[in-house]
Specification:
The chain contains 24 helices and eight strands. By secondary structure, it is α/β, with parallel strands linked by helices. The longest helix has 48 residues. The termini are far apart.
């Protein structure tokens, strides 16, 4: 009996051990299965969420903090998407590529053959900003790094041809005086027209204008003519009173005095005067105060603080003094009630002795200034600051109240008349317009380039709907059925000529920053955002403005020389001007003839070989530096 019990116990123990072993095996199998499942799940997740090279480059494009970083990512992105092939192929239905190619070869041949008369004739007969439709937006919305290589090469060759004429040697025997050159440069510059940078509004978003100016300045395409309205007038004033050497520090934000904002912020946070127990101003109180100010006056920021900021940074300079100091044409637009003789554009021609800071304040006039009018100040003959007499009976009003039944009376049209402007670069930062606008030259996202993409189908429809709404609103405005309070939110100012609009990319969270006081850190952020709005349009701006910049540089260079200044014998010998060339020039004959054309009074009457010996390597080097090295 005891033996049977022992045997039964041993058998039961063995069965238990075998069962536990099976359980262990099952557990191991489950763990192994889960491990394999987790491994493949992780692999699948990584495969699904892995960024392609295109996505990485797009991320680099959007996060770039320097133009060089942005440009490097754009070039690689074009190679990945095969857009570089599109750039190298000159053919396109959007522009007359045969005309551009023909003129490119003709100008190149005239330079190689030292055909000065033919070269000048080619320049004067074809210097049109939109020659052959080369500024069409579709030519700049395809690739990221630029447009057709043929267009870029053509602009480079024209700029080099202008430089060739500018530096062409002058000699008595060659009958080529500086006055001849000056006439050619002046007439050609006049025919080509000029550009203006228009900075429109923006409240605190207007700080983006600093980034726009910085990007244009660093790439060598910043126009000499600058106009500003409201907050844009403050930024234009900062730019217009600083020289080239001072400008970069201002555009970085390091030289801008924001003390007035800091002082007012501390005053608000310390409570009202005489309050024994001051309470800090809460976010809700700031919101209510600034919203009330915007409804009442049309501005989020205190105009008195703006006045202090402008005076601290601009000082008591007049328009005339600023022009003589910087050679930049500063224009500030104002809106008046119609009484008095104040022009709607203040500059060194219309108001030379007016203080710039007072004009900028008048451009920011609010509804409250109807009871506390802005006074335009000027300097008299003894440099005493006194009220400007023509504005003694004038009341300034917000720019949103301005209504021009005749577009020829608008400020932009007046600027075009005064300075031969036919091209407008508009930086639009108004908080109620920017979300509904799109920059003219923003590159499309690659996902939208596919014919089957939803974006490629929906965006044109949305754009068409927006254009239709704008058209109907303009009709209501023409019939005087649109109240000014609504018009200022929905309609932008019409531009009398070719234009390019730059709009910073804004997010919904950015609108909460309207309630913030400008700080040094916030200023850097807005400047970078303004720069990023310009980078996609750099290629288009070079095509539109590089020739103008080179013409202006050449004109200023030739104008500084004496009309009767000639090249010495040693300099002529150093440039390879031989006696044979002098003899040919003295008889009015060209060594090799190229394209001919009628020349007006003061045209170049002779030719030589001044800059024709330029080597191919030197030419390629100049072409590589095109755009950024062309001075303003």
């Amino acid at each position: 009996m005891p033996t049977q019990k022992v045997t039964a116990a041993a058998g039961g123990h063995a069965d238990g051990a075998e069962g536990s072993h099976v359980i262990q095996i099952c557990k191991s199998l489950v763990v192994c299965f889960l491990d394999v499942l987790f491994f493949w799940q992780l692999k699948l997740y990584n495969w699904y969420t892995a960024k392609s090279l295109r996505d990485v480059l797009l991320e680099n494009l959007s996060n770039a903090k320097l133009f060089e970083e942005w440009e490097a990512a754009a070039i690689q992105l074009d190679e990945v998407l095969n857009y570089d092939m599109w750039r190298r192929n000159p053919a396109s239905k959007h522009y007359d590529w045969r005309l551009i190619d023909k003129r490119f070869l003709a100008i190149q041949k005239a330079r190689d053959e030292d055909d000065l008369l033919g070269l000048v004739s080619l320049l004067r007969s074809g210097l049109v900003r939109n020659l052959g439709n080369i500024t069409a937006p579709r030519l700049f919305n395809k690739a990221y790094a630029g447009t057709k290589v043929l267009i870029e090469n053509y602009i480079t060759e024209v700029a080099m041809a202008i430089d060739y004429v500018t530096n062409y040697p002058v000699s008595k025997d060659m009958i080529l005086t500086n006055q001849d050159k000056l006439d050619v440069m002046h007439d050609t510059r006049l025919a080509f027209g000029r550009s203006v940078l228009v900075l429109q509004g923006g409240a605190i978003f207007g700080l983006c204008h600093l980034g726009v100016v910085k990007a244009l300045h660093l790439r060598g395409v910043l126009p000499r003519i600058i106009a500003g309205t409201a907050t844009g007038a403050l930024i234009a004033a900062l730019v217009g009173v600083h020289t080239e050497d001072e400008l970069l520090d201002v555009l970085k934000g390091s030289s801008i005095n924001l003390t007035a904002f800091t002082q007012r912020s501390s005053e608000n946070s310390s409570g009202e005067a005489g309050n024994e127990d001051p309470q800090p101003s809460s976010w809700s109180q700031t919101l209510i105060r600034r919203v009330k100010r915007f409804i009442r006056e049309g501005y989020f920021l205190d105009v008195k603080v703006l006045e202090e900021v402008v005076r601290a940074n601009v000082e008591d300079l007049t328009f005339q003094e600023a022009y003589l100091k910087t050679k930049r044409v500063l224009n500030i637009t104002v809106s008046t009630t119609g009484r008095g003789g104040v022009p709607n554009v203040l500059n060194y021609l219309t108001a030379p002795n007016v203080l710039i800071w007072s004009a900028a304040l008048a451009s920011n006039a609010s509804a409250s200034t109807l009871y506390h009018p802005v006074t335009l100040l000027c300097k008299d003959d003894q440099n005493n600051i006194i009220p400007w007499s023509p504005a003694s009976e004038t009341t300034f009003e917000p720019w949103t109240h301005a209504s021009y039944t005749d577009t020829r009376k608008s400020p932009l049209h007046r600027i075009a008349e005064l300075f031969n402007v036919n091209h407008f670069i508009v930086s639009q930062a108004r908080p109620y317009l920017a979300p509904f606008l799109r920059s003219d030259l923003h590159h499309p996202h690659p996902s939208r380039s596919s014919p089957s993409s939803f974006f490629s189908f929906s965006l044109p429809i949305l754009r068409l709907i927006g254009m239709e709404i704008q058209h109907r609103l303009h009709q209501l405005n023409d019939l005087s059925l649109l109240p000014p309070s609504i018009r200022r939110f929905l309609l932008d100012e019409s531009v009398p000529g070719m234009s390019l609009t730059l709009v910073p990319e804004l997010t919904p969270s950015d609108f909460f920053k309207l309630l913030e006081t400008p700080t040094r850190e916030g200023l850097d952020s807005w400047i970078l955002r303004g720069e990023r709005s310009v980078w996609p349009a750099i290629s288009a701006l070079k095509v539109r403005c590089a020739i103008e910049v080179e013409l202006d540089r050449g004109y200023q260079l030739v104008r500084r020389r004496r009309p009767d200044e000639v090249m010495s014998e040693a300099d002529a010998a150093g440039l390879g001007i031989t006696g044979t060339m002098r003899k040919q020039a003295s008889t009015g004959r060209l060594r090799k003839s190229g394209s001919r054309g009628e020349m007006g009074t003061g045209a170049v009457r002779a030719s030589g070989s001044g800059g024709g010996g330029e080597s191919a390597r030197k030419r390629r080097k100049r072409a590589a530096s095109f755009g950024g090295q062309l001075g303003t």
